[in-house]
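Appendix C reproduces, verbatim, an entry submitted by the partner laboratory led by Prof. M.T., so that reviewers can inspect both the input and the predicted structure.
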Amino acid sequence: MTATTPKSLYSFEEYIKYEDNPDNRYELVEGKLELINPPTFRHILICDFIRDALKAEINRLKLPWLAIREGGIRIGWRKSRIADVYVVTREQVMGSLDESGVLETSPILVIEVVSPDSIKRDYRYKRSEYAALGINEYWIVDPIEQQVTILVLDEGLYEETVFTSEQELVSLSFKEIKLTPQQIFTAENI
């Protein structure tokens, strides 16, 4: 469930400077601050597992990329989302290390882990927002359905492939990664 704050509309600049309880996380949606519920431990462990797998692949291939947890992405004039994991070039963040953790350029890859309260947000809203922003690859990791949907941008729309069980993921950004949904969804056993 999400809640909004009392002020009617916030600009992006007000959003990145907004101060509240440090335990609260907000997304900016059409100028309104929407409070995001804290994730479950399963959600956290799945995100950590994925980020660690991506970081290992980035290091193995010596790519100038970073895998970041819970960073923001500016989606529009009065819109910003918090992604569970995203991959960016080092160059995209190095010039703004001491500024708000909201990316104003498109990440290479975005990954969202579905929670019961984020199904519509992850499958519908973020899908269209990320496509409009030109994010080439978007993963929807769904522990409820036990599947990973990989969306690849093609002429402004996402083409999707769904992976289940022991199928190896096929990623545009990480062509050599050896990762299955089964490995991801047992991450809480680590």
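Helices lie at 12-17, 41-61, 90-94, 119-133, 181-185. Additional entries are available on request from the coordinating office.
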